[in-house]
């Protein structure tokens, strides 16, 4: 939460998504060339980028999108689709 408050949600989502794309490309390259150790490292980096961007931020943003009287139902519907 501290990182989200200091860096900003939009910036964290952009940086995290960009790094996830790069690491996903690294995973696919390593898999194609049978570099097992590099693939493990890329998977670990991908997971760490997911942990600070696409993992927690949508769960924080969804309830903030809706007014109070509609928040429970709308958050439940978004959770089903997420």
Automatic annotation (TrEMBL):
| Location(s), subcellular | Cell membrane
Which of UniProt's keywords are assigned here? Answer: Membrane, Transmembrane, Transmembrane helix, Transport
Q: Does the keyword Transport apply?
A: yes
MF annotations from Gene Ontology: transmembrane transporter activity
Q: Does the keyword Transmembrane helix apply?
A: yes
Q: Which GO cellular component terms, listed alphabetically, does the Swiss-Prot or TrEMBL entry include?
A: plasma membrane
- Name all Major facilitator superfamily (MFS) profile domain ranges: 1-82
Transmembrane spans: 12-33, 39-62
PROSITE patterns given for it? MFS (PS50850)
Highest taxon in the source lineage? Bacteria
Q: How does it sit in the membrane?
A: Multi-pass membrane protein
Its BP terms in the Gene Ontology are: D-glucose transmembrane transport
Q: Which SUPFAM superfamilies match?
A: MFS general substrate transporter
Q: What is its main location?
A: membrane
Show the InterPro entries listed in the entry.
MFS_dom, MFS_sugar_transport-like, MFS_Sugar_Transporter, MFS_trans_sf, Sugar/inositol_transpt
| Family, similarity comment | Belongs to the major facilitator superfamily. Sugar transporter (TC 2.A.1.1) family.
Q: What is this protein called?
A: Major facilitator superfamily (MFS) profile domain-containing protein
Q: What is the scientific name of the source organism?
A: Bifidobacterium breve DSM 20213 = JCM 1192
